[in-house]
Amino acid sequence: MSALVTLAEIRAAADRVRPIARVTPLLDASAAAGRPLFLKCENLQPGGAFKIRGAYNMVAQLAPDQRARGVITYSSGNHGQAMALAARELGAPAVVVMPTTAPAIKVEGARAFGAEVLFAGTTSVERRRRAEEEAGTRGLTMVPPFDHEWIIAGQGTLGLEILEQRPDVEAVLVPIGGGGLVAGVAAAIKQSKPSVRVIGVEPSGAAAMKMSLERGEIVTLPKTESIADGLMPVRPGDLTFAHARQFVDEVVTVEDPQIADAVLWLFSKAKIVAEPSGAATAAAALTDAVRCAGPLVAIVSGGNISAEKLDELRRASAGAAV
Q1: CATH of the domain at 211
Q2: Do 97 and 230 share a domain, yes or no?
Q3: Which of 230, 73, 62, 84 is nearest to 150 (CA)?
Q4: Per the count of CB atoms within 10 A, which of 101, 125, 243, 298 is most buried?
Q5: 168: which residues sit within 8 A by CB, 6+ positions away?
């Protein structure tokens, strides 16, 4: 296993991704939330999610011959779009393996950035297997969605920004899928300002990291279920788990109805378009899952949601309220 990502590596990644990754705003939503809450709007990144940070950081460091042959990844959607965009900017052909259940908006996004999209199963294990087969057959370089030190360092640049924008932050809420974002953010924050709490957030139906940390070893779930399609890997990565054990203070879970309500709250109260995966942290902030008296930052990690899906959640919420 590789060593944990250093603060110097995260700072180098920040310089590397500066040409493409935006410094996203930190929106004060305290009045609407009824507590000191700030929303880190990664839904405004190119590609609509934080993933461009890690994807670009990795593709930019590949050798010229690797980029010339092309890159491949396996993704529920957002990392695939980010890698496709990074590859386009850096002159590399791109292939993305997505689940058969991937939202059309994410499939279309990857194709719009020039990627060839393949489909394989519904789990991260199935699409990873297909991607590895394609990489071997076609001589492509794998750009994994979360379990690589270059990916983690790239995502860690988000942690540096939060500390710069809100030096008095008490705690940061980070969504967890495979764990690349929480690994990077926690590494950046804990190696810069250890007093800041880093709290991971998972759907209750896909709490692989929480269970792994509780057991002290990586757990593979038999299946995952959630409306948050980007937070559904059946196991954390080896490297992301190691970072979480070292740097993450706590992992909490939220229920799907809470995530759906958070999507609608962000849209109506904060005027932010967030997909369910991007709203999980807001769901935790709007419940009693997290106790924090001081400034709390919730990372809104992505905004790739269709108008139809947003309306579906609105109608379901209205029906439940009747």
Answers
A1: 3.40.50.1100
A2: no
A3: 62
A4: 298
A5: 294, 295
Closest by CA position to 230, among listed 201, 210, 193, 252 = 201
219 within 8 A of 208, measured Cβ to Cβ: yes
175 & 213 share domain: yes
Range of the domain at 232: 7-49+148-321
In this prediction, residue 207 carries a pLDDT of 97
Residue at token pair 């809104």: 300
What residues in the chain have per-residue pLDDT under 70?
A: 1-2, 320-322
Q: Please provide the DSSP assignment of 85-136 as one string.
A: HHHHHTT--EEEEE-TT--HHHHHHHHHTT-EEEE--SSHHHHHHHHHHHHH
